[in-house]
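Feature request, filed as a ticket because there's no other form

It would be nice if the structure record came with a short human-readable summary line next to the tokens. Right now we just get the raw output. Example of a typical job, pasted below so the devs can see what we mean:
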Amino acid sequence: MVLAALDGVDGVIVIVILAVLIFGGSAIPKLARNLGSAKNEFEKGLKASKPADDADTTPPANKPSDTDTPS
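Raw output as currently delivered:
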């Protein structure tokens, strides 16, 4: 596979050259800013949903159930 050979510094250089050829030099900073702001919004959403998730993770009280009784 070609993608398996794109590791290390050589792979990064090839990817940067392809990105400049595809998007143009002036569009790369805009793309990077958009990716950064999307990442920040995603992290804000994760932090906002954490308190609701913490309340749901408390273990239930040990109550005997019908399946625990021997037959």
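Something like this underneath would help us a lot:
The first helix runs from residue 8 to 23.
The radius of gyration is 25 Å.
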